[in-house]
Specification:
heterodimer; A: 296 residues; mainly alpha; MetI-like fold; 15 helices; globular; B: 564 residues; alpha+beta; D-Maltodextrin-Binding Protein, domain 2; 3 domains; 4-stranded mixed β-sheet; 17 strands; 40% helix; 12% strand
Chain lengths: 296, 564
Amino acid sequence: MRLRKNAVLYWMLLPGMILVFVFHYLPMAGLVMAFQDFKPWLGFVKSPWVGWENFQMAFQREDSLQVVWNTFFIACTKIIVNLVVPVVFALLLNEIRHMGLKKVIQTLVYLPHFLSWVVFGGIVGDILSSQGIINTLVLPSLGLDPILFLADGNWFRFVVIVSDNWKEFGFATIVFLAALSNIDPSLYEAAEVDGANRWRQTWAVTLPALVPIVIVVGTLAMSSVLNAGFDQIFNLYNPLVYDKGDIIDTFVYRVGLLNSEFGLGTAIGLFKSAVGFIMVIIAYVLASRFANYRIF
Amino acid sequence: MRKKMMMLSAILLVIALMGTACSSGGDKGQSPESDVESKGFTNGKFDPPITLTTVGSVGSNYVFKNGETLENNVHTKWVKDNLGIDIKYNWVTSGDQFATKVRLDLSANNKMPDVIHIYDPQLMSDLIESGKFMDISSAFDKYASPKVKQIYNQDPMYWAQVTKDGKHYGLPTLSRAQQNDTLLWIRTDWLKKMNMEPPKTFDDLEKIMDGMKKTDFGTGPVNPPLAISIKDANMPFVQWRGDASWIFGGYGIIPHYWNKWNGDKLEYGSVQPQMKQALAKMQDWYKKGYLSADVGLIDVGKSDDTFRNQKSGIMTGPTFQASVVRSALNKNNPNAEAAPFPIPAGPSGKPGLRNTTVPGGAFLINKDFKHVDAFFLYINKMYEIGDPPKGSEFENGYAEGYDYVIKDGKVSSVEADFPDKQKVNVASYFLSGQPFVDPELELNSYVKLYNGEKPSTPFETRMYNAVPESERKDPKNVLEWKAAYYTLQQKDNTLANLFLGPPTPTMKSKWEALVKMESETFLKIVYGKASIDEFDTFVDKWKKMGGDQITEEVNDWYNSVGGK
């Protein structure tokens, strides 16, 4: 009976389901490549099977652990920074009473989100080059020596994390601003009556109200714990920072696409997905246990 | 009622979406060409016209006028009207997307075009291995004109890339010999001001670079004196411009190149002991500020920019860099003077520079293509008009208003003489995107002009007309001609890459790791982030990680194609 009543809604669900199936489930069949010496012209059926050879090859390389660690380190730092900064920024922005100013700031900070990394990477590269404004104006005026940001591994990681945050924090802020506007004003009124100042109100009312959404965003982000951002790294990295900046995706790109070793590339990609899957499950269990957050 | 309408529209929406999802991948039903033996080849024209499908890419330097496209332009029209060949592009993409798109077609098992022109050696070997393309040996014997045969038989190595099991799986396209051989382009007005002679040795060069750093030329500080780029992650030191390989050449080797460096076996340049000294030299130059602090981060375009913007006094690159001087540097400063010079001698006592590989890409022909004769008709004709006889309709160029104009009754291919100030390189519309000429022809013709001879063939006249009249009076100082002269002079100092084959089996699985280690080590040494002794560690590792095995395989390949 309920099914019939909601039939129209189910029908409307169908296009989305089809898209997900076609673009997310169907391509999974291609994962068989991870166990094959895949040749495009032979296809999945005729390409020879090689068992775990591709995985062995991937993890025999002396740089494979380094690459996984780079990915993990960069991705995790990004997740944390990209959670903290937008929350703080949303709180600050929320305190601005002038609506016009608030809107303008909000728009300005989320504009970079719409630039592609090809463009944004070029801008970052120019700013940080030896002839860029940081090295010719900012650092000398502080009495510091020029720094070759993109030619030094540690600085490279720093740049990657900061520039990613610069590009994305404005967009993430919107989610938290929406959550802030949903807080019942009577809670603030009650707190005020109880004699809480603004700082205390933030601590006792605003932050607890934000916790659920922070957990949701954090949980979703856990799936990308091995996703350090191909577009960004690819547009910024160079052989000088391979040891600190080469990540799984750039590695797969070079091996799988440029060298046409599709099997090896897929094997590494499969490993990445498996780790991501496990991380999502762990994060979900934690979220449901400690914050009572449930999707299902 | 309202509910029903909603239901209906929802269903319609779903059906529409499903329709779009399923309709891709159609458009495959191309009817096969008729099997009837046509007289087209012997007549020199196919009547009715036959269709030749291909795929193409448009580079950033492509220019179109009169609303033309790669699919429909002065060249395709001419081919259809005169040869009866209707060139159809299955798709056209940007230059950097081309190889990816071909790979996708290959993976999706889409029908391959009749003719495909490929540069990427890895992709070429994949395509040949796919078995979708034909052995053209017998067709070449049957249809190629005597002139084409003469050109292609000059060197068996031309065919190296397309040879598999002794068969020729494609027609290589030949670039001009020495066309990418590097020269030094130096600001001669700066040399004069410093009272210095052009460099004969690396020591001279160091003095010049040092002088440039210390002299005020009224254009701001010179930084860096030497404009090169070592950004490329696969071959940092070998570039078509902004090249650094001549620094290593001065020690007798070229990095990334396979050659018989010692003895009679092919060996990899980057692991030779001379490499260590050359890297130490680059490390020293970097420390002294002769190279850009960002030399490992900027691409060749940006490194040339520093020369254009008068931040650098020396750039590297082949003959065509004349255009950087003429159109870019002189726009910034009409009084700036720069000229090409040969590569100076290194500590080995001799200069050394990388050789241009003549076979660049290759045409592969689909196995199912019924008109390989039409393809050869096109090739024969194109080689004919590449070096046309007197009185030919192509005497002055490929198309009036495109690559030449008649101004005041005189033929000119100087861009400023065009009514719309827009000159078009018609050869970029050809199936290979480059002119079909004997590889040796251009350089020899340039040198003739340099020596003050008047042009005697239409081909030479064309080149003559491309230089502004005011400059022609002093042939020894026409940049292109002078560059060609030096290029030919230093030809004996060139070092070739003798490995042109497809990646060997061990290369396929190990090469990426080796290249990664190589680029990382070398760049860190240049930047002074690693000690020069890291080089020895690198060589040991390289050999153990598959390098020795690869060396064997490369030599097997070399022997199999009859390398001497």
